[in-house]
Structures are given as C-alpha cells and as structure tokens.
Amino acid sequence: MKSIEQEISRLVRLAESLDHYKKELNKDSRSFGKFPEEYKDNLELAKLAIKMGTFNFQHVSERLRNNLELAKFAIGENTYNFQYVSDELKNNLELAKVAITENYHNYQHVSEELRDNLELAKYSIEKSPKNYWYVSYELKNNLELAKLAIEKSPKNFQHVSDKLKGNLELAKFAVSYYYGNFEHVSEEARGNIELAKYATEKYAYNFRLVPLESRGNLELATLAVKKSPKNFEYVSEELRGNIELAKLAIGKDPDSFQFVSDELRGNLEFATWAVGKDPENFLYVSDELKGDLELAKYAIGKSPSNFWNVSDELKGNLELARISVSQSSGNFRTVSDELKGNLELATIAIRLDPHNFESVSDELK
pTM (2 decimals)? Predict the structure, then answer.
C-alpha cells in the first residue's frame, strides 16, 4: 500500500515538475539545455522543447536521440537535426532517405555502411550531385555511379577513383560533358591518341596536357595546331622540324616561327617564307642566316628595324647600310664603327636626321 502511495506521490511531483519546466520553456526556449538529465530524457518534454526551438534536439538524452519517432519529428521540424541522431539511427536506411529528401546535405551524416549502399548513393546524388563526394571509396570505383554523378555534375569526375580516371570509356564520357575533365584523366589515358584527339577537338588547350611522347604523333599534332596554332609550341622536338606542320602553324600565327627546330631556322627558303609572313621572324632565323645579305635585304625591306638583328659583319656592309639608313635614319646608330666614319653614309644619315651627327666617328666630327 505504501509503495503505491509513493508511486502516486512521485508521479504527482513529476507532473508538477513537468509543468514547471514547460513554463520555463515558454519563458525561454533555450533553457532546455540546462534542464536536469532526467527531463531531457522525457519524450513529451523533448517534443515540446524541439517544437519551441528546433535546435533543442541536440540537447535531448542519448536514449531519445535513438528514438525513431522523435528523430523523425525533430527532422521534420529542422532538417539539420539528422546530424544529432544516434549512430544507430544514422545507419537506418528509411530515416536516412527521409533526412536526405528533406535536406540533401544530410547524406554526409549517414553511417559509413550506408555510404556504401548503392541504392542510397544514387538517390542522394539525384537529390544533389555534390553528394558524390561523400560516397564510400568502393562506390567511387563504381562505373555506373560515376557516370550518373558526372551526368548530374560534370566536375564530379575529379572525385572518381584513380582506377576510373584511367578508364578510357569513362574518361571520354567525362570529357564529353566538360572539356576540363581531361586534366583529371590519368597520365596513361591522356597518352591514348584517340582520347587525346577527342579531348583536343573539344578544347584546344587539352593538347598541352597530353604526355610528350604522344605529342609526337603527327596526326594528333596536326589536329591540335589546326584547333590553335599556339599548340605548335607543345609538339615534340621532332615535329617542330616538320616543315608542313611548321607552315600550318605559321600560316595561322606567324609568331609560331620562334618554336621551329634549329634546322628550319637555318633553312634559307623556309626562313624567307616565314619573314614574309611576319618581318619580326627575322629575329629568330639562325645566326648564319642573319649574315645572309639577300635575306637581310628582304627582311629590312619588310621592316627597317631588322637591321638591328643582322650579323656584325653585315652591319659593316656599305650597300646594306645605305639601304637600311635610307629606310630608317635611326639605323645609322647600329652600323659598324668603320661605317660611322664613312662620309657618304654619314651625309645621308645626317640629312635625314641631324641628330645622327652625334653618332658619326670622331674623325668625321
């Protein structure tokens, strides 16, 4: 009889205490975190606290965090509450789906075991492609899932496993969605000629990411230069000496001449053609050709400033000096010391620009 009375008395005190704490919550919803542990373990009070302040779920007892009913209620009030449920409930597939449906960010809080669940991974990626970042290592090696993730967000390719980054099928699939994915393809796969062609066709810059050995493939290099003459700089050393490829590059961008092989820089016929495309290319012809009188005349005829780049020997050639000074009086400053003492040449230079008197030899002064 006494025990029944005691239990009744306890329940009355509990009811009074619950009323007291309910009133406290009404005054300040943040007060729940300071309640005694036994009241944080009360389901009714916990629901009220969460209703009044959704952040209060993080303060409920460990036991209640493992309560499926309360967990669903808390997530319904605030989707971010999933991160506070027990580890056991984070492994509950049903609850995980509910949480992810409400807020895709919740996928990152599911258990390691559920991150390895293909069904849930697909579901979460459908909700947000970013969730692919959080799937298990094993699932990042799953070709089907990788394709889904890339289809939803092409930049997900950089998060696939190293093994899949070397998969030619997936690499082409990824590049087809976003040309920049070629950067993340394995080096070995980037060396595949067919894939390299495909990637370069998508985006000319990708040619520069192809391994050097494959950049020696004439067919690939030709495609790359057609897409952008700037790619000529990145072809193999051997192909820089290929006259047809060099002409293709220079025809599109005359500046490409500076990247041709030493052999082509010393080829008179080719060098003359290149200077015709852009007079500034004379700067890059071989030292031997900078001493070729006919080429020098041709280059100076195209641009008088090229006299500055002829050989020292030609700077002492009176015929060439007359031509260059006649076209640009400033070239007198560059003729040899001997020619600065030539009365005929000095007269021409000073007539064109009196300031040239400063450059004549002391003897003539």
Answer: 0.81
